[in-house]
Amino acid sequence: MLPEPVAELILGCAFEEPCFRKIIFGLGGIWVEALADVSVRLAPIVREDAEDMISEIRGKKILEECAVSLRG
Q1: What is the rounded CA–CA span in Å between residue 44 and residue 65?
Q2: Strands ordered across the beta sheet of 38-42
Q3: pLDDT tens, per residue, the chain with 72 residues
């Protein structure tokens, strides 16, 4: 059983004309609206892009703390 949630995430895909697909990642919940703290890439992405997206958001410290608490 996982501990109570400590962070929400947003992961999405947006389609724009003529044929652009964007991937967005960031902290979810009120953080995405209050801070507009998201990272954006054109799809498709590879693992390195995903890792860069995680490291680019201002809320990455929260994610690092969550990872530590989940590892025990």
Answers
A1: 28
A2: 9-16, 20-27, 38-42
A3: 556 666 788 999 988 888 789 999 998 888 788 888 899 999 999 999 999 999 999 888 888 877 666 555
